[in-house]
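Hey, can you fold this one?
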Amino acid sequence: MRHTVVTVSVASSLLLGAKGADAQETQLVDRIVAVVDGEVITLGQLDRTIGRVRTNSSIDTGICASGAEPVEAAEPQTGERLARRVLECMIDDMLTFQHVRRFPQFDVLQDDIDAEYQRMVQQYDNRAAFEEALKRQGWTPAEVRYDLERAALVDNYVQVRYRDVIDVRESEIRRYYEDVLRPEMAREGVEMPAFDAVDSMIQAILVGDEYNRRIDDWITDLRRRADIVVYIW
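Sure. Predicted structure:
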């Protein structure tokens, strides 16, 4: 079970300083929806991320997009429920980045970021179309590059710390073959494949399951130790 996020009822605001020499007026810039160990998530950031989920955008980074608990646009979630789910995922992203950035050995090469950014651009007719898509979703190229760097940094860490150290024994693969795959094939009325034909596939499934479990345990521990305040709901 995930660590419960502390909530309060009134939203805070980021305020721009006084306008003009004599005026003491302030201008509302953005609302803070959460603070995670001293770093803020704003309503604007939340709204933009929700927009990416709703449009199933290819402009997507972070553990919410590819980690243990991705937010799926196809899920029957609307309004507040979707916003809550997306915010939870953004908190997870921030917690993992805050943890991983302390380890310089996992720094990302700029060439890798450039290549990933170019891969995203190539999904559109041209760079102008890509940047127009960014603008519609409230993002700038610099923000996307920053998000890509954050996501790559976390990915480097979890690959070394979690995925690469997972060892699945042949006995586990055979157990899955007999206890899970065989009954499934029987229910579907499909001929059971030979073990050697599917052992690599089963291994990948088991590695993925264990990886997701470890990532979830890691994030749960990060949440337990973090100071998280949510200012909405």
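The beta strands are 6-7, 12-16, 27-36, 39-42, 228-230. Let me know if you want another pass with a different chain boundary.
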